[in-house]
Amino acid sequence: MAQQIQIDQPRLTSELATLATFTDAEPVSNGTPVTRIVFSPDDLRARAWLKELATADGFEVRDDAVGNIFIRWTGTDPDAPAVATGSHTDAIPHAGMYDGTVGVLGGLEAMRTLKRSGLQPRRSIELVMFTSEEPTRFGIGCLGSRLMSGTLDPKQADALHEANEPADTAKTLAQVRTAAGFTGDLASVKLSPNHYHAWLELHIEQGPLLEREGTPIGIVTSIAAPAGYRFTISGLGGHAGALLMPDRKDALCAAAELILAIEKHALATHVIDTVATVGTCDVHPGAVNSVPSRVVLQLDIRDTDPTRRESVMQAIRRDIETLRQRRGVIITEQIINADAPAQSSPHLVELLEEVCATDGISPRKMVSRAYHDSLFMARIAPIAMIFIPCRNGVSHRPDEYATPAHTTLGVQVLASALAKLASE
Ligand code: GLV
Ligand code: MN
Ligand code: MN
């Protein structure tokens, strides 16, 4: 296949650069910062641009009630379950230009390349651009694929509020998606378990292993299990000069201890697969001369083993109990999500290994520690992922970078695999 298919590397490189111009972030000197929050003007512009590209190539385009975009190349057997690929184009604040986008524009390029090669697929080949893989706006990641796989109740989804807005002004997903033009019933987003014959996602590794080993392709065999929690710490506010130190119940000091307890317990597993991050911390009232009365923290905790993840949570909860008593604060915990890990389909892993062997590539089988929409697609379809290296393993930063050669190779493997799957 490698000899027959010729990926248009300059076009892919240039389209990745164009997509990166749809950004809310100010330029920086050390990279290309991309902030593209779901349903923001830049996200809507990026969606319109992607649809134009797909239409220009003669693919059918539709979107569903939550804004997932489907770009379809209809096969000679249109009723056979399609082979699908895709990823996301939303980006967290000050992220880079490759996370998700390589899987979307790379997927499009794979389809165009196969079309140009004269292939007439038996199964349809479909590219999906998922809504809100990133949790920035509504506090929970993979909104589109959770709904597609029936993992998230449609009513609960519509009632989700913007996570980073004050409670009295935060809009719901229902309000925001309606304003963006997506008005259908969210229940209609769900797909049946045999809707897709197979699902593949191409993505940058977001870690250092491929680059360190000099291996150009990773084949993901499993995806680690993510969970998210929100902790609200309520203490006693007051005047920063007049409230005496012995009388204080400083919510931020308690939060600081909690953050360190989280780090301590994640490290205490001595397993590289346990990771825990507190990435947001809202301090109320947030004035330099006011003792913090309330703090809201968001914890992102992941593990390949959900039982170990839960035992870290139990250890954290024990520390919270002593913290509460010692500091006289109230700490409440709200679970956002606690997801199971996903396993790739052995058949798809084998098929990707075969494609790599034909192309003279020695891939590395690996775990994905980042989550992806594939985590949820695994609930309704056989899945696997293709990873390519990224410079210094950096992701979610403006200096995130993947070479055109690696990106092109990833697309080549993807295209070959899609072609094989479409004929199954
Ligand atoms: C996805 O962006 C993740 O946080 O793993
Ligand atoms: Mn990401
Ligand atoms: Mn991603």
From TrEMBL:
Family named by the database record: Belongs to the peptidase M20 family.
Keyword field: Hydrolase, Manganese, Metal-binding, Zinc
Cofactor (UniProt): Zn(2+); Mn(2+)
Protein name from the UniProt record: M20 family metallo-hydrolase
Molecular function via GO: hydrolase activity, acting on carbon-nitrogen (but not peptide) bonds, in linear amidines; metal ion binding
CDD domains tied to this protein: M20_bAS
High-level lineage: Bacteria, Pseudomonadati, Acidobacteriota, Terriglobia, Terriglobales
Protein source organism: Tunturiibacter gelidiferens
Keyword Zinc among record annotations: yes
UniProt keyword Hydrolase present: yes
InterPro entries: Amidase_Cbmase (IPR010158), Bact_exopeptidase_dim_dom (IPR036264), Peptidase_M20 (IPR002933), Peptidase_M20_dimer (IPR011650)
Cofactor note: Binds 2 Zn(2+) ions per subunit.
Domain spans labelled Peptidase M20 dimerisation: 227-322
Oligomeric and partner information: Homodimer.
Binding site for Zn(2+) 2: 99, 134, 396
Ligand binding (Zn(2+) 1): 88, 99, 203
